[in-house]
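Data deposition worksheet. Section B asks for the primary sequence of the deposited chain exactly as it was used as input, without tags or linkers unless they were present during the calculation. Section C holds the resulting structure in C-alpha cell form. Section D is free text for depositor observations; keep each observation to a single sentence. Incomplete worksheets are returned to the depositor.
Section A, Depositor: J.P.
Section B:
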Amino acid sequence: MIKKGMTRQIVLHYFLVVFLTILLVEMVFLFAIRTYYYDGISNYLQSSFDNTSAPTNSRDLISTYTLDKAEVQVLDLKGNVIQNSTPFRLDKPIQTGDIPQALTGSTGRWIGKQAGTGEDVMAVTRMIQINGDKSYLVRYVTSLELVNQKLFYITLVSTGIGIIILIIVLIVSVGLANSIVKPINNIINVSTLMAKGDFNVRIKGNYPHEIGDLASTLNYMADEIVQSNQVKDDFISSISHELRTPLTGIKGWSETLVSGGFDPEETKLGMSIISKETDRLIGLVEEMLDFSKLQQNQMKLVMGEVNMKELLQETMLNVWAKAEQKHISLNLQPGERPFLVYADGNRLKQVFLNLVDNAIKFSPDGSIISLMITEIAPDKVRISVKDPGIGISPEFLEKVKDRFFQVNPNQGGTGLGLAITQQIVKLHQGEMHIESELDQGTTVSVDLPLLDNQQPSGSLA
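Section C:
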C-alpha cells in the first residue's frame, strides 16, 4: 500500500486517467466488434432474400428460402407461424420488433432470446408477395450462441490486455512519482536542517527542471545566510571595538579627573577628550539608528529647495579641520549656474559629509580632493567627489555599498556609511555610482533630479 503523500496522489492520478482511457477504448472496441459480427450475420441473412426469386406457390416458400444454420418461418401478416423448417411450433403470434418493420416494406431485424428455449438469436424478416396478390412474412432465425462465445472470448482477452497495461502503468507511475518525490523529500530534509540553524548542509544531486532550480535557490540562500552571518559577526566584532575605544577613553579620563590634583590645562585637555569621544559614540549610535530607520522605511525627509553649491560649501567647512590635519586641499567646481534640487538638505549634507570624509580618510597627505557639480541632462545634476586615494579593487567594488561590508576592518567604522548614503540617495529618486582603480583613486557620483522638473509635495515619510 502506498502511504499518503504526493506519491499516492501522482500514482492515483496517472492510474485513473489511464484506467478511464482504457475503459473507453474497451467499450468502443467491443461495441465495434459486436456490431461487426452482428451486421455480418444480418447481411448474410438478407442476401438470401436478395438472391432468391419469390416462388409462385406459397407451399414452396420454405424450400425456396432454406438456408444453412438458420431456421425459416413463414408467417401471415398477423404474425402467426404458418410454416416452419423445424419441428418446433409456436402457438402464439410472434410479436418481436422485426415484424412491424417488415410490414412497412423494409427488412426487419431483431435480436433477443428465443421464446421457450431462452437462446440468444437474431431474426431477419421480409414481406414476400405470391403472384403479386397474397403476402406472407418470411423470417430467418439463427442462433447467436457461437458468436456470443467468440465475443466473450474477445472481451476476456481485451480485458486481460487492459489489466496488464494498468499494471505496467502502475509500476511506471510509482517510479515516476518516486523520481519526483524523492528529490522533494531530500530538499525538505535539508530545509528542515536549515530551519534549525544548520546552514552548512547543502542539497546534493543534479535534479532537472524546476526541482533543480529549487535546490539551487535553497543552496544559494544558505550561502547568502552564511555570508550574512559572517558579515554580522564581523560587524559585531567591529562595532564592539569601535565602542570600546571611546568608552575606554571616557572612563579613563573620568576616573583621572575625579581623583583631582590637576591644573586647569590638564583638566581642559581631559574634558576635551571626553567630549570628543562622546561625539564619536553619538555618531556611531546615530549611524546605526539611521540604518535601522532606512531598513524599516521609517526615515522622514523634510523636503524643500536646496542649493547644491551652498550645501557643498557647508560640507567643506565641516570637514576642513580634518582635511587640514593631513594637509589635504578641497577643491569645489560649482558649475555655471545654481543647481536647485527638491530634497532634505540635512540628509543630503549627511550624504556628502560621508563621501568627503571617506575621501579624506583614504587619500595620502598633501593630496587634492575635487568636488564637481555638472548638468548631465536638462532635468538632472551630477555631484562628484574625486580623490587620488588608495582606490578599491574590482573584486570589492560591487560590495562596498553592502551593509556592514568593510574592505579593511582594521581601519575602523561600522561598514554602514555607504549603505546609508545609497539609501538616502534612493529616497531622493537619485542614483549613486562608484568608479575606482586600485592605487589610482576613487570617484563617487550622485545623480539627483533638478527642481525645475519636480513639484514640491511637503514632507515625505
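Section D:
Residues 453-461 have pLDDT under 50 and may be disordered.
The two ends are 60 Å apart (CA to CA).
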